[in-house]
Design brief:
This protein is mainly beta. Helices cover 3% and strands 59% of the residues. The protein is built from one helix and 14 strands. The strands form two sheets. The protein has an eight-stranded mixed sheet. The protein is globular.
Length: 143
């Protein structure tokens, strides 16, 4: 299915969204808004949105950028009191800028760290993430 825009909104829920195949067209935007929930998004590289907006309340979230990334992604992620896992494929250039409250950041893999900026090197389209998080745990995984 060719997706140019996708907007998902739910309340207190448990959801898993998988992008198993590369999107045949360039996606303009992917927006996901959720409340107190457990949400996992897998294969975001296959969806390959130019802009990703994820807003979560209190909960547990996984954002997996694996797949065939076709264009740069500019992501804006905000989460309240939560546990967040961000997975960047090895060899994909990425930059994560973290702001917000008291966070426990656990980087895994090859990250260059300077203050609240975490970067990986690589070639191809780049993932730029601006993360505003309340109080919580953040796992940054490059694998």
């Amino acid at each position: 299915v060719a997706l140019t825009r996708l907007n998902i909104q739910d309340g207190a829920s448990q959801a898993e969204v998988r992008f198993e195949e590369p999107n045949p067209v360039q996606m303009e935007s992917l927006r996901y808004r959720t409340g107190a929930s457990e949400v996992s998004l897998y294969g975001l590289g296959n969806a390959s949105p130019a802009f990703l907006n994820f807003e979560g309340g209190t909960g547990s979230y996984t954002l997996d950028f694996s797949g065939s990334l076709q264009q740069d992604i500019q992501a804006s992620i905000s989460a309240g009191v939560s546990s967040l896992k961000i997975i960047i494929p090895a060899g994909t250039p990425a930059r994560v800028v973290i702001s917000g409250g008291l966070n426990n950041v656990q980087p895994r893999g090859s990250w260059n760290i300077s203050n609240n900026v975490y970067e990986t090197s690589g070639s191809g389209p780049k993932i730029e993430i601006n993360l505003n998080m309340g109080v919580g745990n953040l796992e940054l995984i490059s694998e």
